[in-house]
Amino acid sequence: MSFVSYAMILAGGLGSRLCILSEKRAKPAVPFGGKYRMIDFALSNCVNSGIFDVGILTQYRPLSLRDHIGIGRPWDLDRKRGGVELLQPFQGWAETDWYRGTADAIHQNWIQVEEREAEHLLVLSGDHVYRMDYRPMIEAHLARGADATVAIAEVPREEARGFGVVDLDREGSIRGFLEKPAAPPSGNISMGVYVFRTSALRAVLRQDGERDTAHDFGRNILPAMVHGGRVLGFRHEGYWQDIGTLDSYYRANLDLLRPDPPFPLEDPRWHIFTPSTEFPPARIGARAEVRASIVTHGTIVNGTVERSILFPGAVVEEGALVRDSIVMGESWVGPQAELRQTILDKRVHVGPRARIGFGEDLTPNRSCPEHLSSGITIVGKETLIPEGTTIGRNCRISANLIEEDFPDDTVPSGGVMERELNVAH
Amino acid sequence: MTAIPAVLVLVLAGGRSDALRALGRIRTASALPYGGKYRVIDFTLSNCVHSGLTRIGILTQYAPLSLHGHIGIGRAWDLDRRDGGVRLLQPYVRQRETNWYRGTADALVQNRNVIEDAAARHILVLSGDLVYKMDYAELIRSHEERDATLSLVTVPPPSEEPERYGFVHADRSGRVSALEEKPKRAGGGAVSAAIYLFRARDLLDQLRRPEGGPDLVRDVIQPMIADGARVFAHPHRGYWRDIGTVDSYYESNMDLVRPVPPLNLYDPEWLIYTPSEDRAPAVVGVDAVLSQSLVSHGARVEGSVVRSILFPGVHVGAGAVVEDSIVMHDARIAPGARLERAIVDKCVVIGRGAVVGHSGSAPERGSSWDLALGLCVIGKGSVIPAGATIGTNTLIEIGVSERDFPAHAVAAGTVIRPGAKGRAASAAPVAPGSAP
């Protein structure tokens, strides 16, 4: 019997490194794996772990997330006791402020913890892809009387540079944190999954709130707790992926297509729940070819689809080719159009004979070379790519563009198309 | 749009369909899986909500559990409502007289209180086992304009099996002069689609007659016509199929994988609603071949699937071939197996290298159990042993295990039942029309 019954999911951040995928939605609401949103993993882990009382802290563009969560029905979180609640910053009598950081978000909503008289609290991130039973971690936390317990994943040491690296002693206690170190001493990183003793967390949040810090769990709160208390590490075995960059997003999606996927999406013992769409089954036409791909309800395939993920309602017309690509809900790929290493956001219209992700020129993106340089081209929501247009690699095509926004029929590799600029520069 | 007058919908969904054989024994026809993710009744219920009709009673009797589980509180159709919504009407024990529903009219008679309490202007009586899309609002409008006692929807007569239909004779204005059930030879330009809109008070008058019989057509509608009541035909021009036999069920499903399907499931204005299952997206393997098929969530295809319908959770192993077949929920087609023109019910396992619907074995004349199309039907949960060869026109009953197969080669036209090993000889062809 675990004594942790309340979880708070941090879902407010702006995911700027996900480029235009998170331009119009919070990162946890970014579509993933054919029919999911990223937050489905944390939410499903909660209910599969027996936690049916969840608060989701939102701040940046919460509408898409709000629509997705609704009253929590797909997760059985529409409940009389507990359930799911979205906690958006609000105006109060005395103090009013936006969330200044992840820790501040929880501090501002401390009333939720107080009302529940919760002795311990589970804190999660809404933008990680993983399956985890939180119960063994909670049991370890309780058994060892920790102030905080931090889930730890092991990654190759060189990859640990982008994360918070944990310094563990032999007993599994955490001696210190290194945030994004240049030379990681190990590959043990914090997954952003925490169990806190609420009294200990409260004290640290109070102190931190009065200081000028980033009010961040990884950078401020946990180091402070290590300083004054007992913080344990808990190793998580199995797949875990932080979807921080466009490359990691792309890779995590395409990982699902491997003959030996890192984890099966279909596991009757550990369902990943999400609101279902009302579309009919996927329809595969007479001349279609589909290989090593994921298809969902409402997709219609009459062309060729290889190593790609088609979200609900995506349509690939006859003679079209979709390869190594992610096509989100209700996007349309016209006849003879070709997509290579392309991410189409929702309801993109690719005109006949258009080519996206074309050529071998890997010039990094002009405006964000640090995030778009591996060859992926991305097209924002509801944009219309005119018939016959050729778009190179590492391109960023903004949302809501119309035919007139494409004065030329070519966008070279590394190009950016935006409404205001109106030029492929 | 003018307000829709108060209409109570009653869906007849309790019938037992012997002609559906192993598919219909465990469930009423309305609950048959259809089109990859639906149950047949989804069409009727979706038509209702798209037409703005949200007061619905579903009359169930035969093997209703599958249907009850499917309908639940009606959430999938937005029928979990404060006013109206969906209600399941089972026969129940009464103080004085207790009976099963003895027929369609008797089912209405036993629910007369429901009809009276609804205080509706019209009663729309539908069948849950029909596949069609129809806007009932138009029917209601013409019914009111004509001040009709009864409007019955008609469709063009089917080319086959006229004895399964009722032929409608109407004059140019649509006034019906006769409804002839199961005629010896096809006559007239239209058949009844089993969609009836009654003026509530006229229906109640008819149901209150002490001499009333149990059948809706014979004992309610035909007497109304004979009495000169205002009965009108309302032609429906779109797709309409009665799936009450194995062959008609199969053909209607196969209509969906035709290059241009006569029934469009993808119309965003008229989606067919059904409770969705929490399944992962469908995964198509590296060596898979998929063509002219419908594939649902949870399916995993490693082999070849052509002109077929895969329901949620179906696995088709590497090198397996599925052609012209319907494969229901969670069936497993092992690597190297082959299915041709088969209907495979839920949770069936086809062993490695087994061949079902082996076209090499032509059906013997006169040995067919009742299928003109020569289909193989495999009942829920049955297991076909690895390496078995099952001829065309074969019925494998519900829950048949590997032990029940007398030999690895099963001749065309055979029926195999569970626990039949000791009666291996009885796994012989049965004559057409004999009892299942």
List the helices and strands and how they pair.
The complex is a heterodimer of chains A (425) and B (436).
Chain A: E1 7-10, E2 31-32, E3 36-37, H1 39-48, E4 53-57, H2 63-69, E5 83-87, H3 102-108, H4 110-115, E6 120-125, E7 128-130, H5 134-143, E8 148-154, E9 164-168, E10 174-179, E11 188-197, H6 198-210, H7 217-228, E12 231-235, E13 240-242, H8 246-255, E14 282-284, E15 289-291, E16 293-295, E17 300-301, E18 304-306, E19 309-310, E20 315-316, E21 321-323, E22 326-327, E23 332-333, E24 338-340, E25 342-344, E26 349-350, E27 355-356, E28 377-379, E29 384-385, E30 390-391, E31 396-397, E32 410-411, E33 416-417
Helix pairs in contact in A: 6-7
Chain B: E1 7-12, H1 21-25, E2 33-34, E3 38-39, H2 41-50, E4 55-59, H3 65-71, E5 85-89, H4 104-110, H5 112-118, E6 122-127, E7 130-132, H6 136-145, E8 150-155, E9 166-170, E10 176-181, E11 190-199, H7 200-208, H8 216-226, E12 231-235, E13 240-242, H9 246-255, E14 282-284, E15 289-291, E16 293-295, E17 300-301, E18 304-306, E19 309-310, E20 315-316, E21 321-323, E22 326-327, E23 332-333, E24 338-340, E25 342-344, E26 349-350, E27 355-358, E28 376-378, E29 383-384, E30 389-391, E31 395-396, E32 409-410, E33 415-416
Parallel strand pairs in B: 1-4, 1-6, 4-5, 8-12, 14-17, 15-18, 16-19, 17-20, 18-21, 19-22, 20-23, 21-24, 22-25, 23-26, 24-27, 25-28, 26-29, 27-30, 28-31, 30-32, 31-33
Antiparallel strand pairs in B: 2-3, 6-11, 7-13, 8-11, 9-10, 9-11
